[in-house]
Amino acid sequence: MNEFHATPDEKAELRRDMLENDKELEAHEARLQRRIDLLAWVLAQAARPRVLTDPESWPKSLWVMDWPDTAEVAFKDPLVFDLARYQMAGDLRGEGARELGFQGLYNRLEAIADLLSVQPPTSPPGAKQLGKRAINMLVRGIAIDLDDWNVWFVNEWSADGCPLGMRPSQSAIAGAIADRLIVHPALEGLPGAIMSSDAIRAILRVGK
């Protein structure tokens, strides 16, 4: 459709489509950011554990049970499960840097019931790193999102500046995740906690 020669109805439809696409892209970007934020927190907590009863030790502006993509990690990984549990308790007590009215607390009850009705997850056999299952899940989830909607514009480029494929490679995705962890504020002062692109690539290879 050529917008310059479209009817008013066609122009309105085109703008609606553009707005819906923008919202979908924003949703994917937000989901990627949540996963990066939780991944950075898990890596920091594994490197330098902080007491989870203190809201100051929680990820900034991320409540695990608010989002399906982070809630699923809580039911698989004991570290994130404990974080979600203390955050829910913080909601009930009015702690944790956010105010919830009656309706907000009522909406939390289902998430609280979900946490209370399951057995807490355990670490995978032989796992030496705290949060290992969460790290694997989050890295793979980010890679899947980028493969579906490459909103970070991740790719490998030829010498003449052309992309080397229509979809991002595992190597490019691993490098992009590592780059974001390097500058993440949750990992400031913890260089040893930052995952290398090689370590991220190893997770993605196993996940295929």
Question: Tags for this entry?
Answer:
208 residues; globular; mainly alpha
Structural summary, described in words:
Helix 1 runs antiparallel to helix 5 (132-148) and helix 6 (170-182) crosses helix 7 (197-206). The chain is 57% helix and 0% strand. 27% of the residues are buried. It is mainly alpha-helical and 208 residues long. The protein is built from seven helices and no strands.
Order of helices and strands: HHHHHHH
Q: Roughly how much helix do the residues carry, as a percent range?
A: 55-70%
Average pLDDT score: 84
Sheet with the most strands, sense and barrel status: none
Ends: how far apart? Answer: 40 Å
Shape: globular
Count of individual beta strands: 0
Strand content: under 5%
Low-confidence stretches: none
**Measured on Cα atoms, how large is the radius of gyration?**
20 Å
In DSSP terms (H or I, runs of 4 or more residues), the helix count works out at 7
Helix-strand category? mainly alpha
